[in-house]
UniProtKB/TrEMBL annotation:
Residues covered by the Ferritin/DPS domain: 23-161
InterPro entries assigned to the protein according to its UniProt record, in alphabetical order: DPS_DNA-bd (IPR002177), DPS_DNA-bd_CS (IPR023188), Ferritin-like (IPR012347), Ferritin-like_SF (IPR009078), Ferritin_DPS_dom (IPR008331)
Signal sequence coordinates: none
Origin superkingdom: Bacteria
Region (Disordered): 169-188
Organism of origin: Cellulomonas chitinilytica
Record-given protein name: DNA starvation/stationary phase protection protein
Homology family: Belongs to the Dps family.
GO molecular function, one term: oxidoreductase activity, acting on metal ions
């Protein structure tokens, strides 16, 4: 990974290590900025009988994710690297597509959001793993986020869960399929 080295980084890390950890964090910054925007998009586009529950459930998640974004950006700066927070850079560097659902029922959105959280959490866990040895402070930051992200994921999944504990989105492939499966199960 060819990166421009920072002029300084946190004590006990080499500049190379600082650059590597910052690069991992930059991806998490993009991912969570995207998540915060997506959660607001759902907050505005959810319709139907569960409107108010889902509309109101999402705002505290947005607030929490924005705090995570700020903490990640400031950790990148602490490591001696400039965090990139502009939307153009986010879109240019991201490896996933825009959230694909517009105005739709609550359960369809939650089915899709289940998929979104699976992606974000899997990548966050990988980033935590990749920084465990090099930078335990960054690792701790990411683990702290995971406590909240996984709790929010459960809030979403609890809407999709049967009394037997099965998810209506199980085995659905992709966001749209997941949304459709969740919505079908609800109307069945
Ligand atoms: Fe609002």
């Amino acid at each position: 990974m060819a990166q421009k080295l920072p002029k300084y980084t946190v004590p006990s890390l080499t500049k190379q290590q600082g650059a590597e950890v910052a690069a991992i964090l930059q991806q998490r910054l993009d991912s969570l900025n995207d998540l915060a925007l997506t959660l607001k998009h759902i907050h505005w586009n959810v319709v139907g009988p569960h409107f108010i529950a889902v509309h109101e459930m999402l705002d505290p998640q947005v607030d929490a994710v924005r705090l995570m974004v700020d903490a990640i950006a400031e950790r990148i700066a602490t490591l001696g690297v400039a965090p990139v927070g502009t939307p153009g850079a986010l879109v240019a560097n991201r490896t996933w597509d825009d959230y694909s659902i517009g105005r739709d029922g609550a359960i369809a959105h939650l089915g899709a959001l289940d998929e979104v959280y699976v992606g974000v959490i899997s990548d966050h866990r990988q980033a935590a793993k990749d920084t465990e040895e090099t930078d335990p402070v960054t690792n701790d930051l990411l683990i702290g986020h995971l406590h909240e992200l996984e709790l929010f994921h459960w809030f979403v999944r609890a809407h999709l869960e049967s009394s037997g504990g099965a998810l209506s989105t199980a085995a659905a492939d992709g966001e749209k399929a997941s949304a459709r499966k969740a919505a079908e199960k609800e109307s069945a």
